[in-house]
Amino acid sequence: MAKIVLRSCDIVVNGVNFSDHISSVEINLVKDEIETTNFSGQGRERVAGLKDDSFVLNFQQDFAAGEVDATLFPLWDLETEFTVVVKPTSAGVSASNPSYTGTCILLEYQPLSGDVGSLSETDVTFPTQRTGITRATA
Amino acid sequence: MRARKEEPRDREFEVTGPKVVGGKSRGERVTLCLTDAQEYALIQAGHVKPAPKVDRPPLAANEEG
Question: How many helices (H) and strands (E) does chain A have?
C-alpha cells in the first residue's frame, strides 16, 4: 500500500458531505487508562478502560443556507445524536480506504473565532457516544 | 425508568441545499435512515425537504382493465 497524501478526505456529518468546507481532520481513538500497578513488579501496570473516541474537524465557516453554521447550530441546539463518517479518500470503502463512523453529540461550538483579516474557521470536536468509532473496510 | 431510545428509520427526502446529502445532489431524491431529531436538524439546516408523494395509480389497477 502506497503512502498517502491527504487531498480528498470524505467527511460526512449527519448525512451531509462537508469535504469542501473542512481543512483538517483528526480521528482520535482513545481508551481510559486504568491503573492496576501492584507490588509484583518494578514499574507501573495499566489496563484499558472505557472508550472516549472523537473526531476533530476544522470547518471553514459559512453562514449561507445549507452550509456550515446552518448545519452545526441545530445539532448543538437540539442536543441530538448524529453520525459522522470519515474516509481517507472519496473512493468507495475498501481495505485501502477504510471508513470510520461514530454516533456523536455536539457539546461545544464556536460560530465565530478569528482575527481581523483571517479566514473564519472553527475547530469542532465531536465526541462519540457509547460504542465509539467503528472501522469498516467493506 | 429510563426512556427508550428512538430507533432511526428510513425516510425519503428531496435534496434542496447546496451540499451532497447521502450521495445525492440538489433536486434528487435521497433515502436516509434517521431519527425524528436528526430529520428536524437536516430540514432546519436547509439541506432537504420531505419528498412529495408520487400520485399515480398502482400498476395492478392497469392490469385489471
Answer: 1, 10
* Phi and psi torsions of A10, nearest 5°: -105, 115
Are A74 and B19 a contacting pair at CB < 8 A? no
> What ipTM, to 2 d.p.?
0.77
**DSSP states along A64-121:** STTSHHHHHHHHHHHT--EEEEEESSSSPPBTTB-EEEEEE------S----TTS--E
Q: Any CB–CB contact under 8 A between A62 and chain B?
A: no
Instruction: Say what the alpha-carbon torsion angle B57, B63, B64, B65 is, to the nearest 10 degrees.
Output: 90
Which of A13, A60, A68, A71 is the mutation pick for testing B, counting most B CBs within 10 A? A71
Cell numbers for A20? 469542501
Cut 0.90: pTM above it: no
- Give pLDDT tens digits for A27-37: 999 999 999 99
* Chain A closest-CA separation from residue B27 CA (Å): 14
What does DSSP assign to residue A42?
Answer: S
- Tell me how far apart the alpha carbons of residues A121 and A62 are, in angstroms, rounded to a whole number: 9
Q: What would the pLDDT profile of A3-56 be if each residue is shown by its tens digit?
A: 999 999 999 999 999 999 999 999 999 999 999 999 998 999 999 999 999 999
Distance CA A47, CA A35 (A): 7
